[in-house]
Amino acid sequence: MGHIKIRKAEGTWTVRAGGAVLAETKNALELTEGDYPPVIYFPREDIAMAFLDDSDHSTHCPHKGDASYYSIITKSQTLKNAAWSYENPTLDAVRIKGCLAFYPSDTVAVERV
Q1: For this UniProt entry, which segments traverse the membrane (predicted)?
Q2: Consecutive 10-residue runs of the chain (113 residues): their mean pLDDT?
């Protein structure tokens, strides 16, 4: 182990895109992997899944498993593959099962409030 660290993220976290709040949770998890910046994972039950559309894109991470992707549908645009989840993560990453993470960008804000 050691390569991946997962801990509860302090405070309340939100995701906003296209003027809408997509997620708000007090149960976010912070995943740190090697030298990468930490990634915040949101429990599915705290996400407005109606804004998300399954994508056929997928990637494989040797440390976390296979990632499924989602596009975010806003009023003005579709943000392709802007969120992802590990439906069947490796043992090291089992705590993030059922959670989604979002790519922060000009159009997607992931922040502690």
Answers
A1: none
A2: 87 95 98 94 98 97 96 94 97 96 96 96
